[in-house]
Amino acid sequence: MIVPMKKVFFAVQEKDQKDALKKLRKTGVMHLEITSIPSEGLTRAIEHKARAEDAMGIIRYFKPPKKKKSEHKKPAKERRHLDPAAPVPERPDLLKLMISLDNEHKELKARRLEYARAYDRVLPWGEFDPNEIRDLRSHGAELYLYSFFPEDFEKIPENIRYIKFDEDKATVRFATVGEKIPGTHHFRLPEKRLSEFKKDLDEVTDKLEKHQEKIKSFASRWPILKREMLLVNNRINLEEALANYTNVEGKLPEYNISYLKGYIPTEDVAKVKTAAVENNWALAIDDPAEDDAVPTKLKNPRAIKLLDPLLDFLDLTPGYREVDISLWFLLFFTIFFGMIFGDAGYGLLLFGATMFGIFKTAKKGVPAILKLLCLLSISNIAWGAINCAWFGIPIERLPSFLQDISLSYFNPAKNAYGQAGVDQNLKLLCFTLAAVHITIAQLHVLIKDIKRKSLKVFSDIASIGMLWGMYNVVLFLVASSDFRPFTIWPFTIHIIAAGVIINFFLKYYDGNIGKSIQEGLKNIFSVILGVSDAFSDIMSYIRLWAVGMAGAAISTMVTEMAGPMLGSFLIFLGIILLLFGHGLNIILTVLSVLVHGVRLNILEFSGRANLTWAGIRYKPFVETVKNI
Predict the structure, then answer these.
(1) Which of 262, 361, 617, 627 is the S-S candidate for 32 at Cβ 3.0 to 4.6 Å?
(2) So what's the pLDDT on residue 219?
(3) 541 CB contacts (<8 Å, ≥6 apart)?
(4) How far is CA 124 from the centre of its chain?
(5) Number of structural domains found in the chain
(6) How many angstroms from the chain centroid is the CA of residue 196?
(7) At residue 628, does pLDDT exceed 80?
(8) Tens-place pLDDT, residues 152-210
(9) Which domain holds residue 74?
(10) Helix (H) or strand (E) holding 333
(11) What's the pLDDT tens digit per position in 448-481?
(12) Which helix (H) or strand (E) element contains residue 253?
């Protein structure tokens, strides 16, 4: 359910701006309308945050020492209160030291790389003093080092005198005496001996290791940096609000009044009113206008909140004036998950992993994502059980009790038509789910138009009729006559034709029938194409069958390939194949769920429900940290 909101204007004198915001933040219910307005205080806070993030990034991968159980919780009287309104203490000693250490670490890594490259370049030539060669050159004895492929070495002109040092299958190393080889580049002499490069490389490597240990020693400072990050986020939160105060036009100069605009849930209006009376604030509360960017706050039962992790991951929020489809999203996504995953064995693995996570987090509070995964795994087990799908094992090799709990509609071993019958039943199920799912979406629009007392209600009813008419057409085209629940052609043609005519007159109705007909004429092709839209929407749900069958085929193939190995000396190879094959299939299936299972809800269903998911998430102006 989308919580009703009120628009609020919060006005104070400029001298009281910061103090008023601190008190308003304690109510924790007002969503401020914030725009990107730069300010000196905000700039400093963001720069401070960047320095703190850099410092945290340096020790992020070093685990702080664990505390004893007795140290985890301090007595209440020993806890320090972090005042989020107080200036955030700059820690130049810690932040500058951490950044300095990081810069030194990067410099040492660069030097080590430089020395390693120089050492590797000289290594094939072995130990020699390059200064001796330079001395010979200065006295007229030209000596140049070369490294050639054997076939190129054979092509050296006969007049070139050389001394060969080393030769293997890939390279010949030699030195020419007196002149260079035309058209080639000789080996550039190093600055020093190979042993000296090795010494430099060992020294810088030793320094780098010691420096890394020094950085590790700062891992214990992680809680301090984390605390500072929480405080600086609070400061940014406050500075953003300060920067968005707007001066009241026509104000008296001696008062300097400014205001902030925001939104609060209707159920929390009393809290803000009480704070306004206690602090002598000016407050104006009104209903949001049609063009206001009102944030959306969802308030659903605990069971429906299981969907929140998925919506958070996808960053989906319905608009304030749109419909909340959380219940239907959760219900059908659970069904789609089971159909796409399809294998009860995979479901048992997911259920086991989820229960382990729930057990480990039970004392601290089970994350919502684990509860959602538990529900989805049960759906997967149920669907796999009625299909008799267990890790791709052939049905005839499964225990009889697993075969008995499957349904003949979806078990080819029980179905009178075999796999062909199962495929037909699965297609029929997909199309029926499509018709029901989309009908529910259009019923939301119908109910909204009923509340508005609009003639557009008849267009909504006509669209639902067209949908079911096209459902019958799809069954006629895809399903054989033995599997069609009904085929009433005259009724189907009449209901589709009536739907097109009614939509022509009322699809664009907005209080004026004449304008609605005029818009219908302008968009006549769109009205006619509404028939094909219904067809394509229903056909889109065939992906549930297709993707599920693809996953089942991969599972069966992996099991059949690994099966013979498990009974021979290749048993370990068979186990590796099973783990890799089924593991890869599970990963691909998860991606399929995110692509197809989510798509059917946020495109086909949401499109029919006039839901754009373009809402602004309700984020109250609140203290982000209180006690640590």
Answers:
(1) 262
(2) 74
(3) 430, 431, 433, 434, 437, 600, 604
(4) 49
(5) 4
(6) 51
(7) no
(8) 888 888 888 888 888 888 899 998 888 888 888 888 989 889 999 999 999 999 998 88
(9) 5-89+220-296
(10) helix 326-341
(11) 999 888 898 999 999 999 999 999 888 888 877 6
(12) none
